[in-house]
Amino acid sequence: MDCKIVFFDVDGTLINYEDGCIESTTKNALHILKNKGIRLVAATGRPLSMCHSLQELGIETFITANGAYVQHKDNTIYASPIAQEIVQSVKAYADDNHHSLSFFTDQLSMNGVHQPKTLQAMKETLSLVEYPPIDDNILNKQVYLMCLYVNSQDEQKYMKQFPHLKFERWHPMITNVLQVEVSKSIAVQAVLQYFKLRPEEALAFGDGENDIEMFKKVGYGIAMGNGSMALQNIADMITMKSTEDGIDYALRKLQLI
Predict the structure, then answer these.
(1) Are 169 and 152 in contact (CB under 8 A)?
(2) How far is CA 154 from CA 91, 186, 256, in A?
(3) Which residues have a Cβ under 8 Å from the Cβ of 151 and sit 6 or more positions away?
(4) Global pTM?
(5) How far, in Å, CA of 173 to CA of 189, rounded?
(6) What is the mean pLDDT of each run of 10 residues along the chain (257 residues)?
């Protein structure tokens, strides 16, 4: 396989879904890829500030906020910020209804509404054990993604209140609030164009349904053994779980390491 770039989902893929750690075999595999001149890209729902530990793995390109902000070293490849008036309106409505809302700039912050289910959802998706801080200046910053922590019934209220916005649920207690379409697939395409690479030269690892569109933009998609059935059904390969050296296993099977 003529592979020149590999996209890695983070939570549940690069990062062990059980204890939030990165397997030593994964670290070694990425080190080998980088030494072979293969580009490494992290594609995550996390903000950039929560990706610093991944730089130690040799990753220099980051797709963050589920594709709304992409950076290579110090260069912004792609950015799709939400209009400030929309951030202000959604924040005011969430505050009035006592719903938790988080904001993705290059950092992660929230509106200060603390609910037990919010922290549990953050732990399950971002490995957080405490609430992000409140940013009093958030309305003056570029926000790339908002996450609303509500059930599907409460989500309907927001859909009626903001019919011009898109609500994209990806967890039982979390829905993305979007002004325009953002996705890992759009970001992957921007990265490939930036490096002048073809889709067939790209490989991707993932575990969630938000990785399905990313798989469609690359030549070869590998689903983790702990991944969703929907992703496994469209993957070119299903590897072992992230707790069972899944990345190392797949790369060796493809003779890339």
Answers:
(1) yes
(2) 15, 29, 47
(3) 172, 173
(4) 0.88
(5) 29
(6) 94 87 95 97 91 91 93 95 96 98 95 94 88 96 96 97 91 90 91 98 94 95 96 98 97 97
